[in-house]
Amino acid sequence: MRRLTRKWNQFTAKLLDVPQDVVLDLPRMTLIGNMQLYIENHRGVLHFSSELLKLALSKGKLEVHGKQLVIRAILTEEVFIEGVIDEIKFIP
Q1: How many Å apart are CA 56 and CA 8, to the nearest integer?
Q2: 39: nearest Cα among 87, 75, 92
Q3: 58 pairs with which residues across the strands?
Q4: InterPro entries from the entry (predicted)?
Q5: Which of 52, 65, 66, 81 could form a disulfide with 87 if both were Cys (CB 3.0 to 4.6 A apart)?
Q6: pLDDT digits (tens, 9 = 90+) for 54-75
Q7: Which residue blocks in 1-90 are alpha helix, DSSP H?
């Protein structure tokens, strides 16, 4: 059933020319080199240190590993971090 729902949402997104991340409630990430990361559509910060950021998502978690990580801006559904980003991991 989930598969059918996802296919329907993808079809609807294409038909209405709406970005799939909006329809499927997925995070949108913009990575600039390995120094800056902008993440939209998260559900909150679970953990933050200078080496690890964990974000809650509607369907899982997102982990950002690195060095000297700093949160430059944080809003309800957006976060902007800087530092040396080594790895981004999606955990369903």
Answers
A1: 25
A2: 75
A3: none
A4: Spore_YabP/YqfC, Spore_YqfC
A5: 65
A6: 999 988 999 999 999 999 999 9
A7: 2-16, 20-23
H helices present in 1-92, as ranges: 2-16, 20-23
**Residue 29 and residue 41: Cα distance in Å, rounded?**
9
**pTM, two decimal places:** 0.77
As a whole number of angstroms, the distance between CA 19 and CA 27 comes to 11
Q: What is the Cα–Cα distance from 12 to 34, expressed in whole angstroms?
A: 34
CA distance 76 to 80: 12
Is the pLDDT reported for residue 8 higher than 70? Answer: no
Domains of the chain are 21-91 (2.60.40.2000)
Which H helix or E strand runs over 45?
strand 44-48
CA angle 25, 29, 30 (to 5 degrees): 150
